Protein backbone atom coordinates (compact mmCIF):
# COMPACT_ATOMS: atom_id res chain seq x y z
CA UNK A 1 0.00 0.00 0.00
CA UNK A 2 1.28 3.41 -0.88
CA UNK A 3 0.93 6.20 1.57
CA UNK A 4 -0.44 9.44 0.27
CA UNK A 5 1.80 12.38 1.08
CA UNK A 6 0.37 14.46 3.88
CA UNK A 7 -1.05 17.79 2.90
CA UNK A 8 0.66 20.64 4.75
CA UNK A 9 -1.52 22.03 7.52
CA UNK A 10 -2.79 25.49 6.67
CA UNK A 11 -2.66 28.00 9.53
CA UNK A 12 -5.94 29.26 10.90
CA UNK A 13 -6.54 32.85 9.85
CA UNK A 14 -9.13 35.29 11.21
CA UNK A 15 -10.86 38.16 9.46
CA UNK A 16 -10.69 41.67 10.95
CA UNK A 17 -14.31 41.29 12.12
CA UNK A 18 -13.49 38.07 13.98
CA UNK A 19 -10.46 39.67 15.65
CA UNK A 20 -12.59 42.67 16.58
CA UNK A 21 -15.09 40.34 18.27
CA UNK A 22 -12.32 38.70 20.29
CA UNK A 23 -11.05 42.05 21.60
CA UNK A 24 -14.47 43.71 21.71
CA UNK A 25 -13.41 46.60 19.49
CA UNK A 26 -14.53 48.00 16.15
CA UNK A 27 -13.08 46.28 13.03
CA UNK A 28 -11.57 49.62 12.00
CA UNK A 29 -9.51 49.51 15.21
CA UNK A 30 -8.10 46.15 14.11
CA UNK A 31 -7.18 47.68 10.75
CA UNK A 32 -5.49 50.58 12.54
CA UNK A 33 -3.55 48.11 14.73
CA UNK A 34 -2.35 46.43 11.52
CA UNK A 35 -1.25 49.74 10.00
CA UNK A 36 0.67 50.74 13.14
CA UNK A 37 2.34 47.35 13.59
CA UNK A 38 0.47 46.28 16.72
CA UNK A 39 -0.81 43.25 14.78
CA UNK A 40 0.94 41.48 11.92
CA UNK A 41 -1.57 40.64 9.18
CA UNK A 42 -1.23 38.35 6.22
CA UNK A 43 -2.34 40.13 3.05
CA UNK A 44 -4.17 37.87 0.63
CA UNK A 45 -3.76 38.27 -3.15
CA UNK A 46 -7.18 39.96 -3.11
CA UNK A 47 -5.78 42.65 -0.77
CA UNK A 48 -7.80 41.53 2.25
CA UNK A 49 -6.04 41.18 5.59
CA UNK A 50 -6.14 38.07 7.74
CA UNK A 51 -4.60 37.49 11.15
CA UNK A 52 -2.84 34.36 12.42
CA UNK A 53 -4.89 32.60 15.08
CA UNK A 54 -1.73 31.84 17.06
CA UNK A 55 -0.89 35.56 17.40
CA UNK A 56 -4.45 36.50 18.38
CA UNK A 57 -4.73 33.69 20.95
CA UNK A 58 -1.34 34.62 22.43
CA UNK A 59 -2.47 38.25 22.90
CA UNK A 60 -5.74 37.10 24.44
CA UNK A 61 -3.88 34.79 26.86
CA UNK A 62 -1.66 37.69 27.96
CA UNK A 63 -4.77 39.71 28.77
CA UNK A 64 -6.51 36.81 30.50
CA UNK A 65 -3.45 35.91 32.57
CA UNK A 66 -3.15 39.49 33.76
CA UNK A 67 -6.84 39.62 34.63
CA UNK A 68 -6.54 36.52 36.84
CA UNK A 69 -3.53 37.60 38.89
CA UNK A 70 -4.63 38.49 42.39
CA UNK A 71 -1.24 39.17 43.96
CA UNK A 72 -0.30 42.01 41.65
CA UNK A 73 2.26 44.03 43.65
CA UNK A 74 1.71 47.18 41.62
CA UNK A 75 -1.89 48.06 40.71
CA UNK A 76 -2.37 49.31 37.19
CA UNK A 77 -3.66 48.37 33.78
CA UNK A 78 -3.30 44.82 32.49
CA UNK A 79 -0.69 44.21 29.77
CA UNK A 80 -3.47 44.03 27.18
CA UNK A 81 -5.02 47.29 28.38
CA UNK A 82 -1.55 48.85 28.45
CA UNK A 83 -0.94 47.75 24.83
CA UNK A 84 -4.24 49.30 23.74
CA UNK A 85 -3.44 52.50 25.65
CA UNK A 86 0.02 52.66 24.07
CA UNK A 87 -1.48 52.24 20.59
CA UNK A 88 -4.01 55.03 21.25
CA UNK A 89 -1.24 57.37 22.41
CA UNK A 90 0.85 56.44 19.38
CA UNK A 91 -2.05 56.76 16.89
CA UNK A 92 -3.85 59.84 18.18
CA UNK A 93 -1.21 61.79 20.09
CA UNK A 94 1.92 61.09 17.99
CA UNK A 95 3.43 59.07 20.82
CA UNK A 96 3.24 61.94 23.32
CA UNK A 97 1.66 60.73 26.61
CA UNK A 98 1.58 64.26 28.02
CA UNK A 99 -0.67 65.34 25.12
CA UNK A 100 -3.08 62.53 26.01
CA UNK A 101 -3.12 63.61 29.66
CA UNK A 102 -3.79 67.23 28.63
CA UNK A 103 -6.69 66.08 26.45
CA UNK A 104 -8.18 64.09 29.34
CA UNK A 105 -7.83 67.04 31.74
CA UNK A 106 -9.39 69.40 29.19
CA UNK A 107 -12.40 67.07 28.85
CA UNK A 108 -12.95 67.12 32.62
CA UNK A 109 -13.03 70.93 32.87
From TrEMBL:
Gene3D superfamilies per record: 1.10.1660.10
Pfam families listed in its UniProt record: HTH_17 (PF12728)
InterPro entries: DNA-bd_dom_put_sf, HTH_17
Domain Helix-turn-helix: 13-61
Protein name: Helix-turn-helix domain protein
Amino acid sequence: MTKKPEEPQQPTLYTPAEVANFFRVDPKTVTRWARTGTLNPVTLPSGHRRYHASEIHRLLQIGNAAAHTTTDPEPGPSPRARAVLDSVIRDYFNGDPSAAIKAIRTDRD
